Sequence to fold (400 residues):
Amino acid sequence: MFGLSQCISRLFVSRSAACGAVALTACLALPSAQAQVFHSQQHDFRVVTVVEGLENPWSMAWLPNGDMLVTERPGRLRIIRNGVLSNTSVAGVPMARVGGQGGLQEVAVHPDFESNRLLYLSYAQGNADNSEGTTVVIRGRFDNDRLSDVEEIFRAKAWSQTSGHYGARLAFDGNGYLFISVGDRQAPPAGDLSAHPAQDPTNHQGTIVRLHDDGRVPDDNPFVGRPNMLPEIWSYGHRNPQGLVVHPETGDVWETEHGPQGGDELNLILPGRNYGWPVIGYGVNYRSGLPIHDTPAQAGLEQPLAFWVPSIAPSGLMIYTGDKFPMWQGNVFVGGLSAQHQRLSRVMIDGRHVLDREALLSGELRIRDVRQGPDGYIYIAVDNRVGLPTPIVRLEPADE
Fold:
């Protein structure tokens, strides 16, 4: 019997992609009693397979009846019911602009789903000839495993020919407001950095957006009524926000974003604030390693609460409140996609202050999303860069 890290190694040295996928599946599908035990500062845990055979799973959400919804970036919304992945995808999902980092991305459940049956999806939408794309959010009524009455509630002013940095994370707060992340669409950090699109609030590139659940702009958004500023914007100066969560107890909005080569960030998102990209930061230019910024800090620009150098490529963000890992309650969990530094980062916070960090599952899994399930376990959507089938797994206490 071999452990998870050995299994991942066998995946990459196997003679064929199919053999590698089989090796990974065989390892992750071990029963809980046999699965490798991982040690951490406060809890020992096992990684146990929930389902397997997904293609680039991007986001997870649960319905009140316990069904899990999973988006696959190639354009499918799947249902996991009673521990079984559906053979068919949900009908009525709009067609996405699939390529690079774009496709079908986040799924979010309306806080009042039991009464209104509303689901929200973000995806990369193409223009008429698909030469450009942007981030779009729709909502629709979910009944009988299909989506109907679909309406577009937000289309970002972030059109680009590139296929990356869509952002596309969604999060509801306790008052029913919807927060949306939009990436800078890979606009190069060159020339006059203060003129970069992420520093220009007349577009949505590099922003966090706040809306009513039907797409209307709240009257108390920070830029409402201000000339040359889009009223949907809650904060700006972001690069590629791939994690977004509202703290279930404090209501604070937390975000993670990719730096370039280094400088991934964990941010507390405050209304009207400028988070600095690309004027400040802790990363450097790809390939050359030359500096992008004159300084990592500047008056009037927000500093991250934590940053990573080298990059972990953060994706997925969760604040744990469950009872399966009581010593982790209130901790922030950040997924990592980096080939060299992939991990699950546990960030210990006190209110709005970071106290410490711990790297879990270092080098084990390419993590696209991390969520707390209704059962209190921690669920991870495992991604594969070239689209080989991957599983949803969960962390379970080792002593269960």
Q: What stands out?
A: The CA atoms of residues 43 and 244 lie 25 Å apart. Residues 4-397 form a domain with the Neuraminidase fold (CATH 2.120.10.30). DSSP finds three helices and 25 strands in the chain.
